[in-house]
Amino acid sequence: MASLRRVGWGLLLVACGDNAAEMTANGGDTSTGGTSSPTSTPTSGAEETTDPSGTDGTPAARPNWHEDIAPLVRTNCESCHATGGIAPFSLETYATAKNFAGLMAIDVTEGLMPPWHALETPECDPPFPYKHDARLSDADKQMIKDWADNGAPEGDPNLAAPLPEPPSLDLASPTKTAIAEGKLTIDKLGNQYDFYHCLSVDPGNTETVYLDGVQVVPGNKELVHHVLIYVDADGTSANWAGGVQQNCGGGGGVPGAQLIGAWVPGSLPMEAPDGVGTELPAGTRLVLSVHYHATGGGPAQDSGTGLTLRWSPTKPQWTSYFTLIGAPGIGKSLAGPLEIPAGEADHIEDYEYEIGSLGEALPDFVDVRVWTVLNHMHKVGVDMRVWIEDRDTGEETCLLHTPRWDFNWQRSYAFDSPVGSSVRVQSGDRVRIRCIYDNTMANPGVLELMNELGLDAPVDVSLGEGTGDEMCLAGVGVAIKGF
Prior knowledge:
Elements: H1 65-76, H2 94-97, H3 101-109, H4 138-149, E1 176-179, E2 184-186, E3 194-201, E4 209-217, E5 224-232, E6 244-245, E7 258-263, E8 270-271, E9 276-280, E10 285-293, E11 300-302, E12 306-312, E13 318-327, E14 332-333, E15 339-340, E16 347-354, E17 367-376, E18 381-389, E19 396-402, E20 412-414, E21 423-424, E22 430-437, H5 444-453, E23 461-462, E24 472-481
Parallel strand pairs: 9-13
Antiparallel strand pairs: 1-12, 2-11, 3-6, 3-10, 4-8, 4-9, 4-12, 5-7, 5-10, 13-24, 14-16, 15-23, 16-22, 17-20, 17-21, 17-24, 18-19, 18-22
């Protein structure tokens, strides 16, 4: 698919948590799935007792913190909402969590938390579920709402349910850890809290290797909001002074850097399907485009941010490649150059890429399967959909729809299917992308951007690498056998 460049990687990500401004910025989903609390007993209509804590001998109100809510929060929220985490408050104890019960109920009911933006919609019925779906079940959403509606009772600590171990965020059996040399001091600048700097990482492989596992290691968890991961195939970033390019705007910082995925706090390790690996030649650098969010408490330093990597020198059965389609990737615009006028609330950009149209040698005996998809826009974007049109029948297969796009929570979505059974693509198939933008003050992303840039009204936006510019870019990770 595409030019079969030797740069490919896809991610499997899960996150729970956010910053306070984002908790109510977007609407949510109504689908169910994801992790459910193993101790959730009542789901609705909980009755109050005369003593919500149950300390006078009467039965404790249900649901309550110790018996119902704490296990759910431990599993789904504490990776971010913990002391020293990126979230602005902790949910580790009843004393802190009770103060946010109402906000928790609103955000989980609307699907804002845990953050998960790949939704099933009338326009998109993906062929497989996605791995590590972070959404709460309807029963757990209702339980949190009931808890908040009943005054957030604590319950009896003597009846506390055992707290589950949180999911491990460590990559199993890593080959090595590669830490960026760069060190940065982050401080609030006027009204600006958000900064975008790039760090160069040397994987250190002296021969071609095949990656099958990656995890981001945040140096300062209070500052590192999210990370975009790029492959610098030519190693250009090795020449950056101190290993840093400041104000890279969310891009890769070097010409031709290929976006291969994204990380947010609480993400599980990024692991390819069985038998799939990404070729990483010696001399290749990896670039971490880091979104830093200042704490507001004064200057703070980030150092030690990097990656844990797992690879093998043996070529796997399937080789993973990551293709960027749209703007500024391959393919053609169906509407001309990307230009979003100020004040336009429903601006649409469409892109199309016909597989094989760039002269790739992709005969039908080569088996190509899609296994992960990543959408990417900036802060004016509100809705993005990616689908494939069959070369023979014109039948559509929707890969990913993010109808409530949020720049602050970017990730890849990997299909929960054996790679050999996943979506197959062939020369002549068309990949289609539709991006919708709202360049008005009704879009919270535009308000955030105006604040960062010191603007008092929206401005025209065009294609570019900076956060104040826009993109319409789909990263499609494919596994190839027989080539």
